[in-house]
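User: Hey, my collaborator sent me this sequence without any context and asked if I could get a structure. I don't really work with proteins. Can you help?
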Amino acid sequence: MLQRVGVFLLGRYLAFALGTMRWTIEGEANLAPFVADTPVVAAFWHQRLALMPALWLRVYRANRRREGAVLVSRHRDGRFIGDILARFHVSVVHGSSAKPGKAAGKGGVAGLLQLQGILGRGGVAVMTPDGPRGPARVAAAGVAYLAALSGAPVLPASAQCRPRLRLRSWDAMVLPVPFGRGVLVCLPPIHVAPGEADGALPGIAAMLDAAMARADALCGVA
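Assistant: No problem. I've predicted the 3D structure and written it out in structure-token form, which is a compact way to encode the shape of the chain:
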């Protein structure tokens, strides 16, 4: 009962805050091919998860038939986050990505296979490679393996806003404040060839760092 109330309140708050903000986007040309029907793995660090529905809503409003799904943990925190994200017209796939050097468990494999199916239908797979519990900004292997298996590129993205709140969580998650200013950043897509997932992972992580740094700079946040 308490979780349902929390989902309702936080979902309503995020919808209100994100909807009242003035958003600008850098790298719209990088996003444009994926608005229509081209599959893509949209990736960003977990810290900016609460801001990224603004990017998906931009895609959804341009193409309401667009299928999108986000990978979240099977644990309680993941289910809570998934219930909130479901309010923003994106479906939820439960699982987890493998950490670097480790194989994914059965749940993680099942989640990646579901996302691969969505990509095969021309959809969008959304991942936070350092989720669900960190370490912060250390990419798990799943994002690179999904791109290599599906042939869909990784779109490095991020967001920042002013004013903002920062939670005392493992990732210092950023929450938007209503009537503020927000910035969305999409960097050039990264293509991962079959069999090159391990080698591509450091480059993906570096691009996620770059997207976050660029969003911070554009928003004037240190």
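In plain terms: The beta strands are 22-26, 40-43, 68-72, 91-94, 124-127, 154-166, 174-186. You can pass these tokens on to your collaborator as they are.
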